[in-house]
């Protein structure tokens, strides 16, 4: 076509006659071309449609399938459930409570299921009323500074953005929190309030569990009032006493390929032998310990500095992030449990969920051995919760011991008091209970079903990735104490880390880990002053902060005042990172180093006392310098005392009343100028 049109473009032959002739020619040509193009297009369109119509239908079906899979409504209808218990869980406790509530349902002629909100489309809540006598319960833990847990983040985001009509939904919420934290039970409170705003009907009051007190008792107290409210609402009655129902069945593998047996992996089989990024909670990286040194010069405690090699892992971290470490239980405790129960710990077995529709096929990776389960997967050092005691009671052959176990698991005041004194305050773990109750010898598979999962431990990273891109540093103190029964209890993770001695390619120095992002961040502008308060191992993130400020200074950046308030017991015993801090001060990076030695004099001196002593300078940095404040360490006492000290300083120098000063500090928090990284 292009060749046919070319002559008309030549100006040398463009006469009036030839132009008219060409016009006529082109009008005919245009009609021909348009007809040809229209015909070709029509032919292509119809034939294309016929060819593609057939595969289109299955394509649409395959896209729709995952949506149905993620519908908890369809699952509940299919399995005859009418109560769904969602859990937002970081350490496994909220998941455990959700499982207990879903098991309770059968006593009232109802059927429950525990559900991870991360696995379902929560917009389906508006359809729950399609199921008769339906109810949604939410066991929601609060993580960090009022944040949702990782698995509840999407649910939280949806709640914030949703304009759904939930008027047919009936719900109840139990929150898990800790009163030593600023935003006590923020997630539970938010879910309870937001569901009501969206039109849902609350059938029982919000429960607020406090882990600083007795979380188990808080849950039992709420639960014993919750079920009567459910009965009244639906007009049902309890069908009988609480009974023991096994959730998993035991399968012993006598002839098994050992390559198919889990040996401690958290997710994928053989993931520790064949490491593949990205690394996270379900796929931790095995980091080599390259340094493990004692930090303190004296005293009874053992404070240590560890360095984990993350070369070739593609793991990235920022100063202020947390490193999560998966520890292993002490082999002597594991062996003693095996001995007392007369079990061959190397038996390979699986615990398979009796509910075939459940997303959770096993309580921990299976098949595995009892030894592996008790070493890597199960928590054997914390005092067991009351539901574990209730289930175990049936195996006590002595009537007195059985009665004692049942009493401690009851909601009676006497039973609660006995559980508090005999289990919680005496810090009796499962081994101690078995030792102190000679007639209690449960089957080891049922014990493994009941014990909670061993959780990762989080540590504030004590290094800067700008200075140490291929290693992550940890600062920790080993936990060791004598209980009221005279037993020596040891912290699982810290004593396990203490034993990690650097060696060339040795498996004994490998640590399964991943990085959890944090909001604890240096200011965007390096010129912004920072005030850091971190006694004891609370100094960890500030070592990273100071390293980063030193690096920024070396890059020629203007770095603002860097002020540290640090505290320890004795100057010549547990002054951590003394040489490093002195060097940073000498280099002019650390502009102020204020150290409180609490026990080197008759009157105890803590970091808050030094803040008061320097109150004028502190206020100047906050008010004129727009300084950012960071607090790391103990939440119960130190963080609270430090915050009260800031209230006093703001009140005095800002000429404000106490309520105004409190509001001022809260606004600093909202703006990200007052950050906490604390633990209880």
List the helices and strands and how they pair.
Layout: H1 2-5, H2 16-69, H3 72-79, E1 83-88, H4 93-104, E2 112-115, E3 135-143, E4 147-148, H5 153-161, E5 170-177, H6 186-197, E6 201-202, E7 207-210, H7 215-234, E8 248-252, E9 285-294, E10 303-309, E11 322-325, H8 331-340, E12 348-353, E13 368-369, H9 370-377, H10 386-393, H11 399-408, H12 413-425, H13 430-436, H14 444-450, E14 457-460, E15 471-477, E16 480-482, E17 488-490, H15 492-498, E18 510-516, E19 530-533, H16 540-554, E20 562-568, H17 578-586, E21 592-597, H18 607-613, H19 615-623, E22 628-634, H20 635-653, H21 658-670, E23 674-679
Parallel strand pairs: 1-2, 1-3, 3-5, 5-6, 5-7, 19-20, 19-22, 20-21, 22-23
Antiparallel strand pairs: 3-4, 8-12, 9-10, 9-18, 10-15, 11-14, 11-18, 12-13, 16-17
Helix pairs in contact: 10-11, 11-12, 18-20, 20-21
Domain Flavodoxin-like: 83-227
GO biological process, one term: response to hormone
Domain FAD-binding FR-type: 282-523
Overall description:
- There is one protein chain.
- This protein folds into 4 domains: 72-234, Flavodoxin domain (Rossmann fold); 276-327 and 456-518, Translation factors (Elongation Factor Tu (Ef-tu), domain 3); 329-454, NADPH-cytochrome p450 Reductase, Chain A, domain 3, CATH 1.20.990.10; 530-678, Rossmann fold (3-Layer(aba) Sandwich).
- The chain contains 21 helices and 23 strands.
- The strands form 5 sheets. Strands 1, 2, 3, 4, 5, 6 and 7 form a 7-stranded mixed β-sheet that branches. The protein has a 6-stranded antiparallel β-sheet with strand order 14-11-18-9-10-15, covered by helices on one side. It has a 5-stranded parallel β-sheet with strand order 21-20-19-22-23, with helices on both faces.
- The protein is globular and about 70 Å long.
- The model is unreliable at 1-26 and 45-68 (pLDDT under 50).
- Pfam families: FAD_binding_1 (PF00667), Flavodoxin_1 (PF00258), NAD_binding_1 (PF00175).
- The chain crosses the membrane at residues 25-46.
- Its EC number is 1.6.2.4.
């Amino acid at each position: 076509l292009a060749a046919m049109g070319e002559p008309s473009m030549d100006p040398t032959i463009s006469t009036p006659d030839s132009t008219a002739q060409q016009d006529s020619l082109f009008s005919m040509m245009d009609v021909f071309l348009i007809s040809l193009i229209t015909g070709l297009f029509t032919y292509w369109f119809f034939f294309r449609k016929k060819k593609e119509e057939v595969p289109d239908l299955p394509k649409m079906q395959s896209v729709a399938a995952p949506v149905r899979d993620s519908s908890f409504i369809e699952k509940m209808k299919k399995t005859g459930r009418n109560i769904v218990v969602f859990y937002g869980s970081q350490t496994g406790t909220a998941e455990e409570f959700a499982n207990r509530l879903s098991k309770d349902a059968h006593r009232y002629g109802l059927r429950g299921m525990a559900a991870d909100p991360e696995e379902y489309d929560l917009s389906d809540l508006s359809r729950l009323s399609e199921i008769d006598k339906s109810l949604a319960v939410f066991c929601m833990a609060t993580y960090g500074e009022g944040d949702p847990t990782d698995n509840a983040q999407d649910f939280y985001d949806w709640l914030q953005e949703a304009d759904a009509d939930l008027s047919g939904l009936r719900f109840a919420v139990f929150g898990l929190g800790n009163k030593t934290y600023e935003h006590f039970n923020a997630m539970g409170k938010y879910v309870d309030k937001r569901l009501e705003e969206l039109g849902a009907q609350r059938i029982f009051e919000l429960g607020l569990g406090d882990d600083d007190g007795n979380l188990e008792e808080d849950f039992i107290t709420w639960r014993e009032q919750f079920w009567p409210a459910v009965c009244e609402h639906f007009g049902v009655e309890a069908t009988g006493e609480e009974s023991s129902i096994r959730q998993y069945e035991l399968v012993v593998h006598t002839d098994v390929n050992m390559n198919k047996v889990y040996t401690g992996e958290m997710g994928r089989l053989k993931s520790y032998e064949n490491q593949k990024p990205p690394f996270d909670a379900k796929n931790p990286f095995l980091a080599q310990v390259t340094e493990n040194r004692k930090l303190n010069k004296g005293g009874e405690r053992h404070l240590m500095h560890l360095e984990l090699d993350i070369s070739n892992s593609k793991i990235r971290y920022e100063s202020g992030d947390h490193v999560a470490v998966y520890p292993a239980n002490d082999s002597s405790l594991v062996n003693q449990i095996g001995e007392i129960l007369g079990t061959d710990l190397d038996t390979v077995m699986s615990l398979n969920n009796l509910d075939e529709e459940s997303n959770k096929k096993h309580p921990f990776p299976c098949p595995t051995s009892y030894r592996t389960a008790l070493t890597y997967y199960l928590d054997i050092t914390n005092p067991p919760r009351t539901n574990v005691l209730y289930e175990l009671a049936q195996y006590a052959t002595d009537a007195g011991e059985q009665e004692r176990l049942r009493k401690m698991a009851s909601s009676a005041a006497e039973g609660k008091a006995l559980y508090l004194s005999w289990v919680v305050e005496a810090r009796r773990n499962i081994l101690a209970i078995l030792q102190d109750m000679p007639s209690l010898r449960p089957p080891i598979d049922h014990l493994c079903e009941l014990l909670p999962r061993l959780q990762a431990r989080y540590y504030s990273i004590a290094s800067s990735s700008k200075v140490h891109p291929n290693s992550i540093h940890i600062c920790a103190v080993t936990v060791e104490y004598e209980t009221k029964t005279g037993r020596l209890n040891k912290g699982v993770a810290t004593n396990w880390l203490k034993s990690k001695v650097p060696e060339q390619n040795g498996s004994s120095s490998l640590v399964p880990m991943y990085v959890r992002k944090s909001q604890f961040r240096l200011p965007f502008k390096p010129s912004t002053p920072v005030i850091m308060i971190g006694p004891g191992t609370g100094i960890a993130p500030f070592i990273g902060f100071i390293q980063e400020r030193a690096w920024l200074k070396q890059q020629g950046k203007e770095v603002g005042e860097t002020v540290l308030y640090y505290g320890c017991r004795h100057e010549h015993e547990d002054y951590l990172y003394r040489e490093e801090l002195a060097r940073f001060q000498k280099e002019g990076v650390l502009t102020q180093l204020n150290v409180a030695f609490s026990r080197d004099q008759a009157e105890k001196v803590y970091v808050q006392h030094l803040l008061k002593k320097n109150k004028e300078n502190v206020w100047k940095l906050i008010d004129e310098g727009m300084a950012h404040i960071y607090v790391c360490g103990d939440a119960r006492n130190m963080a609270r005392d430090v915050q009260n000290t800031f209230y006093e300083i703001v009140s005095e120098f800002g000429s404000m009343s106490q309520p105004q000063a409190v509001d001022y500090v809260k606004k600093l928090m909202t703006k990200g100028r007052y950050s906490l990284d604390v633990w209880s």
